[in-house]
Amino acid sequence: MMYAPKPRSREICDIKLSDGVLYLYSEAGVHRIEPYAEDIARVSYAESEFSDSEKPGVILLSTQDARSKWVLNETDSEVLFGSGKLLISVDKKSGSYKYYDGSGELLLAERERDAKELDRFEAFKTAASKVETVKTADGEKKVVTGGDKISCGSFYHTRMHLYWQNKEALYGLGQHEEGFMNLRGKTVYVYHANRKIGVPMLVSSKGYGILIDTYSPMILNDNEYGSYIYTEADSQMDYYFMNGGTPDGAVACYRRLTGKAALLPKWAFGYWQSRERYESFDEIINTVKEFDRRNIGIDCIVQDWCSWPDGQWGQKSFNPVTYANPDEKLSELHSSGVKFMLSIWPNPCAGGPDYEEFKNAGLMLETDDYYNAFDEDARKLYWQQVYKNLYSHGVDAWWCDSSEPLTPEWNHVVRREPGRAYEEYIDTAKERFDCDKMNEYPFWHAKTLYDGMRQTTSSKRVVNLTRCAYTGQQRLSCVLWSGDISASWDTFRRQIAAGLNFCASGLPYWTTDIGGFFVKNSVNWYWKGDYDNTTSDPDYRELYVRWYQWATCLPVFRAHGTDCPREPWAFEDSADMSCYDALVKANHFRYMLLPYIYSTAAQAYFSDGSIIKPLGFEFSDDENVLDIKDQYMFGKSLMVCPITCRRGSDGYAERKVYLPKGGWYDMKSKKYYDGEQYISVKAAIDEMPIFVREGSIIPLAEFKTRTRPKDDIKLIVFGGKDAEFDLYEDAADGYGYENGEYGFSRIKWNDEKACLECDGDAELNFEVVSRGK
Q1: How confident is the model over 267-279, as pLDDT tens digits?
Q2: Do 664 and 620 lie in a common domain?
Q3: Model confidence, pTM
Q4: Are 642 and 546 in contact (CB under 8 A)?
Q5: 580, 618 in Cβ contact below 8 A?
Q6: Which CATH number do you get for residue 53?
Q7: Which of 416, 589, 614, 619 stands the most exposed, by the fewest C-beta atoms within 10 Å?
């Protein structure tokens, strides 16, 4: 007969409250519950002693004020530790947790048996002796083919088993290209890839959030194998439980912990024109002139890669031939009111001036041509190079491409299975980084640009378009985009949920390559567009229009891609101008909506809100909305319903729309609908359905081809209920808003009296829409 070794007991045998922090001891391990606010607690679990290594994304919130507000109680069976907003119950026999809100309603429970597991292992890193350079569509990459293993110490795989509630939805954990909305029933791998952003923030429709304090890859699993959160490599189990009361409240808790979302300059909410790629300053300037000739709005034009000298990949200086006289050319561009964004990379090529400077200072990663962003001296040197050769010439904003910085999935012709791709990322990352820091690089790279520019000027806000993010990166003025996706209707549909879950993770600025980055089909798995004839294909033109319309209601409105031009006039057809006309109309709509958008972005900073969010955030008690992937809230008043299907033979696309509780107006027709019903909506090629909540005020600007600090505004009041709107204005750029240099004008509508009031001195130009009128 086999012998079954007994596990160490998890029964709580000792309880200590030290300086407001609770410690619970068992044979299996020690628990620590540390209050950070009345509604936030840090929970740690270790085998014996705690090892609190510094992590860059967290934590900005002091714990001292909160500790006195938490009270410890005991019963025969449980330990109770809580405040008026959050109560944690620990079962004395099993050590499992339950979390309750201030009214005593259960939020989340752990599995009773072995709820928290730690699996110790020895970690190793490769001292590379064999490294090869491979070329991919994502740039040149280093591949380690051999080397000695170096011990990095002991770590733990951690696993926390959880019982989710019936009709509970989960959101967040970054960006998932699979098109997941509600993460229940899914396996979600949280790591970085070209089209994947891992952020360890999970938000429940029950109003709580869990921020896993890890910088290693992790997995959320919810299937027949179990429901748990697993981390790859940590010195202990560590997470923050937040009872926000609502999903929005959970995001606000995350921001209180990890920092406010920096407000972008107003120009960043206008249109960004980009493609792969412009080849000279003259081409860029002439493109802007054509936008103006056609009366199409543009605020930023973007230079993709290869602006550097020939043969010097990633060098942070302009090509002296094609990008000569940068001061003069960028001054000319600025005189037209357009900003210039430049693609810069973290991997200068060997032999170039930037590389040699890093190498001589010992500031490169050992096994890659990437600078060591973990090192403060390396970050300072990177910014010095940027400042000397780029910023000093007038570059306004940065496109930090390839910021993961590892994308081993692009080394294959055939796409790998999700679990194998996750393992390959770990294997590749462990050759470069300590295993508990595998997801950390993007934060430090973003901090390089943010700190450098903030220390250089206070008159220009940082704008960093980057492909990867992690905990706390919202405070570094980053805009994330969804990577090098392919053009297809299916990809378009999946992008909507990808962006919503990313923003549900606490970072408000996200965008996409309108129309997909890759348009044509190739042998490689990632280059799988449906349109070899690109803009000559009527179906691609229609797809591009629908994608463009959707992007007008994203935090950032940006076109980009390869295989064909992306200027609106590239979609002209002399026999059918409908697609081009639809693009111009959508562009004008974005600029007219800017007062609403900029005010919503201000609330993301001042009130820790979101710009776009799943319907499950706003209507969490309605199970019909919890997994809706193709509708969402844009600000507090607009429900956007993108058209993700082709037109029918009658020239109209048709889709189903769910109207949640309350009254709704079709923004275009002004027709009123009762909520809690499904309706069918038809849309011509120049229309995208948007519904306005009853009791809303929408400020609209007169169309101009550039953003302006102050707009001429008309208010549209969608009556039936009282309404209010806080109209935000500031200098449109610079950091005066951090020091009180801004204004909110509160506009109120009294529906019973049919009266509109404003606490500012603005003259009100408004229109009222009521039921049946």
Answers
A1: 999 999 999 999 9
A2: yes
A3: 0.96
A4: yes
A5: no
A6: 2.60.40.1760
A7: 416
